[in-house]
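[job 0412] stage=fold_complex status=start
inputs:
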Amino acid sequence: MLEAAKVTKYFGGMAAVSNVDFSVSQGEIVGLIGPNGAGKTTLFNLISGALPLSSGEIRFKGRKISGLKPHQICRMGVARTFQLVKVFGNMPVLQNVMLGSLFGREHTVSPAEAVREAREALEFVGLAEYINAPAKDLIVGNQKRLEMARAIATKPELLLLDELMAGLNATEVSEAIDDVKKLRDRGITIIMIEHVMKAIMSVCDRIIVLHHGEKIAEGTPQEIAASSKVIEVYLGE
Amino acid sequence: MNKVAFTSRNLYLQVLLILVLILLVALPFYTSAYNIMLLCNILMYIIITVSWVLFSGPTGYISLASAAFFGVGIYTSAVLGQSLPLPLVIIIGGLFSFFLALLVGVITLRLRGMYFSIFTFGLVELVKHFLLWWEITKTNTRGRFVILVNYIHVFYIMLAIFLVLLLIAYLIRRSKYGLALQSIGEYEEAAAHIGINVTLLKVVTFAVSSFFIGTVGAVMATRWTYIDPVIAFDPFYSFMPVLMAIFGGMGQLYGPVIGAAIFAYLEEALITRFPYHYMLIFGIIMVVSILYLPEGLIGLLQKLWKIINSGRLAVYREKRQKRGTGREQENA
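[job 0412] stage=fold_complex status=done
writing structure:
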């Protein structure tokens, strides 16, 4: 579904992501891990079109998406959330999600339909009771859910989750894990950046490890947990 | 309960608007020429301010280019006024501003915050000095005379532009594009990632807002007999809409309308009555309103409305009721 070939991004002289190849197939949950500064979020920014590639190519469903604008990539079916939540704080929760329905598709959606879809998405993430509250009044955990609902409203086939679970407590983490599984059951393919190992190990079908912008390992959670190279990166020699 | 209160308030507002409109249309029949001209001036400020808020309000891109678009309208009127009928001149003036804004928007709307403001301000100077250079080196003239138009015509044209602008501003606010503009103001990156074509939306809205400023320039030019680049591209017209919008409050559509109306009237009243201290008083009002009215006049009104509707009035009613029942018992 998503193929990345020799993806490279330079910031000045420094390679934030260099020569990364990977592919994701339909229905998978892929984890993206690595120490701070490994280039995980940069890789997300390259996929979603927030940043242009320095070189390489990214294809989604066989069509080249590198070089397109974020809104075009979104309308093709790639949605994302942000590491630091970016909800529209002064807007009611419902409107936040409606925007996803109204703008995130190839075809136009009527306002009534957008309201219905937004309600459905909010119900799905468990925010049904807050629909009229300004988004800024939600606690961080719920703001993250709101971002997820807004992304779902664009009807994505591929969803990029950037540290969904950072800052959540243990209960919220297990709820978030359930949410991710439910998303997969809806047929949405997921790539997630995560530092919460419990989450990564329990939901991911496959894990990609980045270090200094390079892919150093890839495999099932068991293989990654046993990999000496990964342990070395995380814990030192 | 809240919903009922809200809709009945809207109804009052609509009736009030229609009454004001009838009053305005009938105005030339019962008031002096001075008042009509004063009203033209007020309408001019209202239109420029509402146009400015149309784009800068929700997106938070503070444009200081209003004077450039206003001046383009003025110059269009000065150059074409002799050969073309006024309505056509006005539309052409608007279109020139529209296309200038499109061009500028494409180049500059990737700039954010202060950089955008400074660039737009630079635009005013750029166009002014370009015209000065053109007049000195190419046409060997300085300034132009403008064909005068009956002030009552000017008034009706201004009123028409105002109504069209109000309608368009209202429709944009209510549409999904209004919501999208607001989302751009909050997190542009997130807006782009949920499928909003942020660049296109920003540029088009900027151009539409500039169109109206251009038309007003084209009409108002006929109030002045002589214009030159320095008069037409006065940076004053870049700052006034910003101040008026802040003064009125940008949360609601009628905020900038009321803000601009009061401000413009105040300006006129102060100039005529306190010509020597006018700027001083003006400055004090501005400072006070920024310090104590962060949401503008409208924010203040809304706060008062809330207080009247809830807490204090309820307490007051309760007290009266108690006193009332007390008296009734006495009477009994």
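[job 0412] summary: The interface with chain B takes residues 48, 50, 69-71, 74-75, 79-80, 82, 86-91, 95, 98-100, 102-105, 111, 114, 150-151, 153-154 of chain A (CB under 8 Å).
[job 0412] exit 0
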